[in-house]
Amino acid sequence: MEVVDIMREGIGVALKISGPLLLLSMAVGILVAIFQAVTQIHEQSLSFILKLLVVVLVLLIGGGWMLETLLDYTRYLFTLM
Questions:
Q1: DSSP H helices in 1-43
Q2: Is the pTM of the predicted complex or chain greater than 0.85?
């Protein structure tokens, strides 16, 4: 049962860390798609550049928290060994 708990916590940490990146990049993609549909501007690099900027900003703002979350989980795993 302990292995299942460790795996569950690992999946929870992965979701907690990747969630903001994925949700914000998806929201930007949807907004850009709506903008492109309304204006009939179909430039592929527009969507890519905006998503890249959002991901970089999220990493700059929340990177410390993400790293600390991973370190806490790693310390937890080492204490179990």
A1: 2-39
A2: no
